[in-house]
Amino acid sequence: MDKRHPNSFQQLEKLGEGTYATTGELVALKEIHLDSEEGTPSTAIREISLMKELKHDNIVSLHDVIHTENKLMLVFEYMDKDLKKYMDSYGDHSKLQPPIIKSFMYQLLQGIAFCHENRVLHRDLKPQNLLINQKKQLKLADFGLARAFGIPVNTFSNEVVTLWYRAPDVLLGSRQYNTSIDIWSAGCIMAEMFMGRPLFPGTTNEDQLVRIFRFMGTPTERTWPGVSQLPEFKTTFQSYPVTDLHHIVTQADPAAVSLMTMMLQLQPDKRISALDALQHPWFNEIRAKEQQRQYGGAPQGLPLPQQQQQQQPQPGYMPPQGHDGAAYYGQVPQQPYSCCRKAPAGKPGRWEVDGIFSVMRVSMALGRVESGAVAWAGNA
After folding, report:
1. Both 42 and 152 in a single domain?
2. In a domain, 272, yes or no
3. What is the DSSP secondary structure assignment for residue 139, as one 8-state letter?
4. Any idea which residues carry the catalytic annotation?
5. 122, 221, 294, 339 — which has fewest CB within 10 A?
6. Could you write out the DSSP letters of every residue in 132-201?
7. How do the pLDDT tens digits run along the chain, 380 residues long?
8. Domain annotation covers residue 60
9. Measured between alpha carbons, how far is 378 from 30 in angstroms, rounded to an integer?
10. In total, how many domains does the chain have?
């Protein structure tokens, strides 16, 4: 790692928790003060290790890490503002126009899908952690609470996600949550972009649950098996019926309401995955434009073909690690999700299937599928 001195960066202005600086290129600096006894915070170690691995157009890039005796400075790519400030600046009473919402949601879900494909939970998705640049590119940031997950299911802390975007299973005390907690947060963010205000602005854990149940209905053992066994579930919760989301997010069209409904399911197992959400009809126009760009030669983040979206990688299989930037080509295997070894030098042909691997990683890595072949950057 290049150990540059902090004085090589000139502070320009402060925005939230970071500062802007320049070395010919505008970057953002995140400064973390180190305790002389406790050393580097675990959140900083976690953020650095994960962001070194997560390279994607919709995830903010970590350029460098500067370590001095009493502080740690993370050097990120420059982004103009976060989504909250964008809504305040450009929205109609903080409401955004439907085409902008659709573009931001598609990019958000691409970033989430990439994290989940790499077995990472963000765990703190909120408008303040989604950054926007002048090209209206959206990128996930602040991975201080993110965690890798695997098999067997880990027991996580339930002190995650800002209250307004926290999933009901986490609010009810579940410590065995999964990728669905990020989907709930994304659904809340989507509604907020339409409404111009938070969907569930609770003040306490219990108030947050009541606000959710008032709109989404109070869960029972019939509608959510096992809910009564969660630590914070109370039999005294008032019984509310389910309210259709189009009565709540009145600014959204039916297709948008359909997607939000799939994301904001009380029972975590019923929430749509990020990969499947990207195939929702609400995004048909964006996917069509992406397909057109595919044949133009330089697409970004191509969607998967429909038949490859139907299956999810089985839990417990880790995607291959280590990307050396080499592009390997071969015929698409019969299995929708598979890892393939490179054919011997000078002998193109079918790849040898080896384990489970999602083709989403392929499209994110190289952004193209040529002549029915899959291109993948990395080591088998």
Report:
1. no
2. yes
3. E
4. 124
5. 221
6. E-TT--EEE---TT-EE--SSPP---S--S-GGG--HHHHTT-S---THHHHHHHHHHHHHHHHSS-SS-
7. 444 555 555 555 554 544 444 457 788 888 877 776 666 777 777 778 787 888 999 999 988 888 877 888 888 899 999 999 999 998 888 999 999 999 999 999 999 999 999 888 998 999 999 999 999 999 999 887 776 665 334 444 445 558 999 999 999 999 888 999 999 999 999 999 999 999 999 999 999 999 999 999 999 999 999 999 999 999 999 999 999 999 999 999 999 999 999 999 999 999 999 999 999 999 999 999 988 887 765 444 444 444 444 444 444 333 333 332 222 223 333 333 333 343 444 444 433 333 333 333 333 333 333 333 333 333 33
8. yes
9. 30
10. 2
d(CA 115, CA 113): 5
My answer on whether 67 and 137 are in the same domain is: no
Same domain flag for 95 and 203: yes
Residue 74 is part of which domain span?
Answer: 6-78
The whole-model pTM stands at: 0.69
